[in-house]
Amino acid sequence: MTPLRLWLGKKKDTLTVGRGFKSIFFIVFTLLMIGGMGSRLVYLQIIEGTQHRKQAESNRIRIIPKQPERGNIFDRNGKLLASTRYPRSVYLWPMAHTKEEWRKVAPRLSQILDIPQEEIEKKLQQAGFSSSSLVRIARDLNEAQVTALKEYENELHDVEIHTEAVRYYPHGKALAHVLGYTRELTPEQLQEKKKDGYRLGDAIGQMGVEKAYEKTLRGEWGGQQIEVDGRGRPLRVLGEKQAKAGHDLHLTIDVDLQKAAEKALGGRNGTIIALDPNNGAVLAMVSHPTFDPNIFSKQKVTKKDWQTVQGEDYPLLNRALRAYPPASTFKIVTTAAGLESGKFSPDTILQTYGSLTFGGTRFGEWNHKGFGPLGFTGAIANSSDTFFYQIGQKVGGQTLIEWTRKFGFGEKTGFEFASEESKGFVPDESWKQKTWKMPWTVGDSINMSIGQGALLSTPLQVAGMFAVPANGGYRVQPHLLKDNQEAKSWREPVNMKPSTVKILRSGLRQVVTEGTGKALNVATLPPVAGKTGTAEAWKRQGVKANHAWFGGYAPADKPEILIVAFAEHSGGGGGSIAAPMALKVMEEYFQKK
Question: Which regions span the lipid bilayer (predicted)?
Answer without folding.
Answer: 21-43
